[in-house]
Design a protein that fits this description.
Layout lengths: L1 E5 L8 E8 L7 H9 L3 H7 L10 E5 L6 E8 L8 H17 L4 E4 L8 H16 L16 E5 L3 H22 L7 H15 L2 E5 L1 H7 L2 H7 L7 E8 L8 E11 L19 H16 L4 E11 L11 E3 L5 E3 L7 H14 L4 E6 L4 H6 L4 E5 L2 H14 L3 E3 L4 H6 L7 E2 L9 H10 L7 E5 L5 E2 L9 E2 L4 H10 L1
Parallel strand pairs: 1-6, 2-4, 2-5, 5-6, 9-10, 9-13, 12-16, 13-17, 14-15
Antiparallel strand pairs: 3-4, 7-8, 8-10, 11-12, 14-17, 18-19
Helix pairs in contact: 3-4, 4-5, 5-9, 6-9, 8-10, 9-15, 12-15
The structure holds ligand BES and zinc ion (2 copies).
Length: 487
């Protein structure tokens, strides 16, 4: 798919399909009135007869029968004008793409919705909505038709913002593809070779630690989780230097469990296939680095991906094991399914040793966060309120939303162990599981500033959403890349 801007007016543009945004109960825009009169008031009639009301996401298509230079007109509901948010613009673009695909259109023109936001922000969001809606995970489906290459033009759009929106969305789709591929393909070694490939393309420094190097460095958390599988663990590092030399980097740390069976504390089989998405944090780190490098972000960044496969076998780590991690703190293992925090302990300890502006970790860490926030918000915990406020704002702007949760002394208490420094599950009956997990991670960040994003509920979807098909959503890529721009 190609997304361009066009300065052509909506009454003159040539396309198979021309889309208009219509607010609920607000009448139709001047541009649409012109079209309406060319079509013998077909649009106002449809609204009067309540065939179309303008509810968010609702669509209505009309043939022009040669009366206009476009074959069909699409109306897309935007909801009530008072309830407008930028995400409705992405939904408008997503709905337009879906309709264009259904009618097998080769060209789609999208008219600017009238709203209070800047043209640049709207163009950016339209481009994102288009590119995100266009992605489907069909690499393993035998194709019967040749692909229809849709050309999209955003009418009166801002070129620079559109191009940046396309870059962001293509990078999110890149993360989604890594998430969606089967776990037999996406192993820790695969993620390492993908990082190396990307590093070469974008001139990033990439280093990969395998079993031998991890042993040398005392990264026994990653080793412990990975040792039950023939697919050996890796710690992958990518460096991007877009900032001044000597400027402290932002360090991104991603959980990269390429499959989480639970290990010896094995999971129930229901929906276990979804645990291929347990590497979503690591995949997000790659997507963010791609945006930074391709857009020339003026920041120094380090990406760390803690990758392992969590399997039961005769060589797996066990409940009762005590692990000495990279920063010498010890972990009492009580449940091998709480493996994310174990691999992150080494990566965070390693990150904390470097002087950074802030460490941001991103992980499909707990089932509890899904109970608390569903698939609407990722959970956020941290020790720097200023940075968390910026992250929350970036979430609202991008639609990749985060909700702050508390980090209280009581949660730290819950992960204290009697026989080691911390234990990998909280005391009690699993209450506040996301927060005892966050308190566990906090024990490894030293005095660094730090934000933790738990994306367990947002990283993938089993029901298609307005501009996301089934599977990986690339959660975290959008919000963190926007956060980095506001630092
Ligand atoms: N990968 C899971 C968390 C998860 C669960 C992500 C469901 C997405 C959907 C993680 O490794 C895990 O198993 N966490 C356990 C921790 C528990 C054993 C303390 C959980 O949340 O149940
Ligand atoms: Zn687990
Ligand atoms: Zn996991």
């Amino acid at each position: 798919m190609k997304v361009n801007v066009s300065s052509e007016g909506s009454d003159r543009v040539k396309a198979d399909l021309l889309a208009f945004a219509v607010y609920e109960g607000s009448g139709i825009s001047k541009d649409l009135q012109k079209i309406d009169s060319s079509l013998g008031s077909a649009i106002s009639k449809a609204i009067k007869l309540k065939r179309f009301s303008g509810k968010c996401g609702e669509t209505y298509m009309l043939q022009t029968y040669g009366k206009l230079s476009v074959e069909c007109i699409l109306l897309v509901g935007m909801g009530k004008k008072e309830e407008f948010e930028l995400d409705h613009v992405r939904k408008y673009a997503g709905a337009s793409i879906c309709s264009a695909k259904v009618m097998k259109a080769k060209s789609l023109a999208i008219s600017m919705p009238s709203c209070k936001e800047k043209v640049s922000d709207v163009s950016h969001a339209l481009a994102e909505g288009c590119v995100l809606a266009d992605y489907v995970f069909d690499d393993y489906v035998t194709k019967t038709e040749t692909e229809n290459n849709l050309a999209v033009s955003i009418l009166s759009g801002d070129k620079k913002s559109t191009d940046y929106g396309v870059l962001v969305a293509e990078s999110i789709n890149y993360t989604r593809k890594l998430q969606n591929f089967p776990p037999a393909v996406v192993t820790p070694a695969y993620l390492a070779s993908e990082a190396q490939r990307m590093g070469k393309e974008l001139k990033l420094k990439v280093s990969v630690l395998g079993n031998k190097e991890l042993e040398k460095k005392g990264m026994n958390g990653i080793l412990a989780v990975g040792k039950g599988s023939v697919n050996e663990p890796r710690l992958i590092q990518l460096d991007y230097n877009g900032g001044k030399t000597g400027e402290k980097p932002v360090i991104l740390v991603g959980k990269g469990i390429t499959f989480d069976t639970g290990g010896i504390s094995i999971k129930p089989s229901r929906a276990m296939d979804e645990m291929k998405f347990d590497m979503s944090g690591a995949a997000a780190v790659l997507g963010i680095m791609r945006i930074a490098a391709k857009s020339g972000l003026k920041k120094n960044l380090i990406g760390l991906m803690a990758c392992a496969e969590n399997r039961p076998s005769s060589s797996s780590y066990l409940p009762g094991d005590i692990i000495k991690t990279y920063n010498k703190k010890t972990i009492e293992v009580l449940n091998t399914d709480a493996e994310g925090r174990v691999v992150l302990s080494d990566a965070l300890g390693y990150a904390a040793e470097m002087k950074s502006e802030i460490i941001v970790d991103i992980a499909t860490l707990t089932g509890s966060v899904v109970v608390a926030l569903g698939s609407t918000y990722s959970g956020m915990v941290g020790n720097s309120q200023r940075h968390m406020d910026l992250m929350r704002k970036a979430g609202e702007k991008t639609g990749d939303k985060v909700w702050q949760m508390p980090l209280h002394e009581d949660y730290r208490e819950m992960v204290k162990s009697k026989i080691a420094d911390v234990k990998n599950i909280g005391s009690g009956k699993g209450e506040a599981g996301s927060l005892s997990a966050a308190a566990f991670l906090e024990a490894f960040v030293g005095d660094s500033k730090w934000i933790h994003l738990d994306i367990a509920g947002t990283a993938w979807t089993t029901e298609p959403k307005p501009y996301f098909g089934l599977g990986g959503t690339g959660a975290g890529v959008h919000v963190i890349s926007e956060f980095l721009r506001t630092l």
